[in-house]
Design goal:
Shape of chain A: globular
Radius of gyration of chain B: 24 Å
Number of domains of chain B: 2
CATH topology of the largest domain in chain B: TIM Barrel
Number of strands of chain A: 12
Largest interface: A-B, 49 and 38 residues
Number of helices of chain B: 16
CATH superfamily of the largest domain in chain A: Glutamate synthase, alpha subunit, C-terminal domain
CATH class of the largest domain in chain B: Alpha Beta
Oligomer: heterodimer
Largest sheet of chain B: 8 strands, parallel
Strand order of the largest sheet of chain B: 11-21-20-18-17-14-13-12
Strand content of chain B: 15-25%
Number of helices of chain A: 3
CATH class of the largest domain in chain A: Mainly Beta
Structural class of chain B: alpha/beta
Strand content of chain A: 25-35%
Number of strands of chain B: 23
Largest sheet of chain A: 11 strands, mixed
Strand order of the largest sheet of chain A: 1-2-3-4-5-6-7-8-9-11-10
CATH superfamily of the largest domain in chain B: Aldolase class I
CATH architecture of the largest domain in chain A: 3 Solenoid
Structural class of chain A: alpha/beta
Distance between the termini of chain A: 61 Å
Helix content of chain B: 25-40%
Shape of chain B: globular
Distance between the termini of chain B: 66 Å
């Protein structure tokens, strides 16, 4: 059964409690229409349910989420996938700031651009390796403080004068990996990252994630892979290890 | 580079009584005691943790301060000079543990409690009921009642979630990582025995503590280590940690050496990686953002648990606390500048923040002035040393107090300030299995429960002498406090009269 909810003029607390109650009773599929800024959709849900969101959801979408699949047929706002543990988020538009803060697992695919501090303090633990792929450009502090996981930035649909990523790229990074389709200026890099060419293993990983990405957005994988990627990794896994007198 | 730093302590061994059992050698976790043909101490390594002293069967060991004389200077104290030497040798930030040791004025010691004489009777707590029970959480602005069909009166106001404490004393947030699993176990058991709360700190929760859910506060800090919806729901209350009294405004750093298999599991990060907690929460840059996180947690816990926010006592604490309460917090924990830490830069611990006494008075007053005091409970932390401090804190406006250092001392801590080294000889602030084993959780729990019970009795004595029979009657009753040796401005800030003035 599919549960359809018309979210027009509905307060977020009512909407989310309706979803929580229905999930408890075994509902597995939701279609939310006329969503307009309701916060916390998917928050803390621990079951493998699917939620289709028609309209722009509010902040902290999928926060503490542990399992569901979300499809957003519009843009998304700030704080998507905050402290998320597992699940999948497909955004058919752009998304705001602080995406994937402390994200520990699951996937987030964004068709368009992303704002500031995307992937900040993303982590990984054993088999849980979070992945964020953004199709457009990113604001400043992309991958800041990153401790694990995979960030991919494609830079599609931009004019030549628009840089693919903002300043302070990977500042404070001490784990994980960032792949960028194109070049970035040296001065935009945080001092904790180094730039490498992807090796065969990286290409395999990229291919795996990007083919899934292409499937969701109807893009051509070969075309995506036709342009070279750069790889950013931290210089040290312990950037601040030597600052103290014991 | 040869170290020029002289030993801080001198270890004396009475070789006449020493029977060379080597217990001191086995017990020293700082490598100070060696056995050649007899026990030979390396004075430089002694931290005065008293482990050897306590376990020497002949009481043959004593530790004294190194009385090495420096040329007198009231300005260049020996420790000042030694710190400079240390930094000249390492080029690093001085790390330290525990609370601020510097001789700042302790305002608790300048406040005295009232008692009844003749005109109003005191109460004998040995025979009369004395209520210490305290509820943490948002209280309604007003209560409304209705009559049901049988003419029975019913409460119609919907109450917000509350946490019941049998005593207004809870254990402070100390993470598994900063302290050992056995210390966590002891705190959880004691919290259950004493009808109070322990706090996981930032670092997740070990599965062994799953049965203590009703006595656990889980913390959400900037690193979000181990934070999942399951973790949030394994608690009596959720606390957002913004700041800590010993290190306001700065983040945390658990070095990779301490991240072993078990810590890795609770923090949910790979073994051996540094656990870096950023200074701010990156989703909180304003009161509005804080509100967003508070309600995100309420959504994830289905509005069944109070959410508290912990901040350091800083200059603007009253306005900040007001914002926190307006943002939807059900409790505010204020941690004063003498509060403890597992590791902090010394310069921050010793110089940043304000005393808890002033912060507490300012926050309580501000919330009262704004008519929102009932919206949140106030927890007062940052060096509560005895039940006298507890009573004074409650009279100044706290709903409950938070004890960290006192709890550790009860378990065996000697406040040697070496928590950051991970070598704690008492098995508290360490992750080394051979040291952790030294702390028996059962014994630790018993010692903690004893402390809470003892302070509970003492609080009852104080209430009795004040002529009141519940802690509720003392809460915020500053008229029952008087100040001594305090200037006018401080008295005004504390909202108390000087001793010698009647009503």
């Amino acid at each position: 059964m599919v549960m359809k909810i018309d979210c027009k003029r509905m307060y977020y607390r009512k909407l989310n409690s309706m979803i929580r109650d229905a999930v408890k009773e075994g509902e597995t599929e939701f279609i939310l229409d006329n969503v307009n800024g309701q916060r916390y959709i998917g928050n803390g849900i621990n079951k493998k349910v699917s939620i289709t969101i028609n309209g722009v959801p509010g902040n902290d979408l999928a926060m503490f989420m542990n399992g569901p699949d979300l499809v957003i047929n519009a843009n998304a706002q700030d704080g998507v996938a905050n402290t998320m543990n597992a699940g999948e988020i497909i955004i058919h538009g752009s998304a705001g700031d602080v995406l994937g803060y402390g994200m520990r697992g699951g996937k987030m695919y964004i068709k368009g651009n992303v704002g500031y501090r995307t992937g900040i303090h993303m982590k990984q633990y054993k088999k849980q390796i979070p992945v964020i792929i953004a199709g457009g450009t990113a604001g400043d502090f992309f991958g800041e403080y990153m401790a694990g996981g995979v960030l991919v930035l494609l830079g599609l649909d931009r004019d030549e004068n628009t840089p693919i990523a903002g300043n302070y790229l990977g500042t404070g990074m001490h784990g994980g990996v960032i792949y960028i389709r194109g070049e970035v200026e040296e001065y935009t890099l945080g001092k904790e990252v180094s730039v490498l060419d992807p090796d065969a293993k990286d290409e395999k990983l990229l291919k795996k994630h990007l083919s899934e990405y292409c499937k969701h957005f109807g893009l051509d994988l070969d075309e995506l892979l036709s342009k070279p990627f750069i790889k950013l990794i931290p210089v040290s896994s312990r950037p601040y290890g030597n600052m103290y007198a014991y | 580079m040869m170290s020029q730093i002289p030993p801080e302590f001198i270890v004396k061994i009475d070789y006449d009584t020493c029977r060379r059992c080597r217990r001191c050698v086995m017990n020293c976790s700082f490598g100070c005691m060696q056995f050649k043909d007899r026990v030979v101490p390396d004075h430089k390594k002694c931290v005065a943790c008293h482990r050897c002293v306590t376990f020497c069967p002949e009481s043959a060991i004593s530790i004294t301060k190194n009385e090495l004389t420096y040329k007198d200077s009231a300005n260049w104290l020996p420790e000042t000079r030694q710190n400079i030497l240390k930094q000249a040798e390492t080029g690093g930030i001085l790390l330290t543990g525990m609370g601020n040791p510097r001789p700042y004025q302790i305002l608790w010691d300048h406040m005295l409690i009232d008692a009844c004489q003749v005109t109003n009777p005191s109460i004998d707590p040995l025979r009369e009921p004395m209520e210490l029970r305290t509820f943490l959480g948002r209280k309604p602005n007003r209560l409304e009642f209705t009559r049901d069909g049988n003419d029975e009166i019913e409460l119609s106001t919907e109450l917000q979630p509350q946490v019941k404490l049998d005593v207004p004393i809870v254990f402070a947030a100390m993470s598994y990582g900063a302290i050992s699993l056995n210390a966590h176990r002891a705190l959880a058991m004691a919290a259950k025995n004493s009808g109070t709360l322990m706090n996981t700190g930032e670092g997740g929760i070990h599965k062994d503590l799953n049965s203590y859910t009703d006595n656990i506060v889980v913390q959400v800090a900037s690193g979000r280590f181990g934070v999942t919806s399951e973790y949030l729901n394994s608690s009596a209350m959720v606390e957002i940690k913004i700041g800590q009294g010993a290190k306001p405004g700065i983040g945390g750093h658990l070095p990779g050496e301490k991240v072993g298999e078990d810590i890795s599991k609770t923090r949910m990060i790979p073994v051996g990686t540094d656990a870096l907690s950023p200074a701010p929460h990156h989703d909180i840059y304003s009161i509005e953002d804080l509100s967003q996180l508070i309600y995100a947690i309420k959504e994830a816990t289905d509005y069944t648990k109070p959410v508290s926010v912990k901040i350091s006592a800083v200059h603007n604490v009253a306005a900040i606390a007001s914002g926190i309460v307006r943002a939807g917090a059900d409790a505010v924990t204020i941690d004063g500048f003498r509060g403890g830490t597992g590791a902090s830069p010394m310069v921050i611990r010793d110089n940043v923040g304000i005393p808890i006494e002033l912060a507490l008075a300012a926050v309580d007053q501000r919330l009262r002035d704004e008519g929102i005091r009932n919206n949140a409970s106030i927890l007062c932390a940052g060096s509560i040393r005895n039940s006298g401090d507890v009573a004074k804190a409650i009279a100044l406006g706290a709903d409950a107090v938070v004890i960290g250092t006192a709890a550790l001392v009860a378990m065996g801590c000697r406040v040697c300030q070496k928590c950051y080294t991970g070598n704690c000889a008492w098995g508290i602030a360490t992750q080394k299995p051979e040291l952790v084993r030294r702390l028996d959780p059962q014994v630790g729990a018993e010692r903690l429960s004893n402390l809470v019970t003892a302070w509970g009795y003492e609080l009852q004595e104080i209430l009795g002498s004040l002529g009141v029979n519940s802690i509720e009657s003392l809460r915020g009753s500053r008229e029952r406090l008087r100040g001594i040796d305090l200037d006018e401005q401080t008295l005004k800030l504390l909202g108390i009269k000087p001793a010698g003035i009647g009503q």
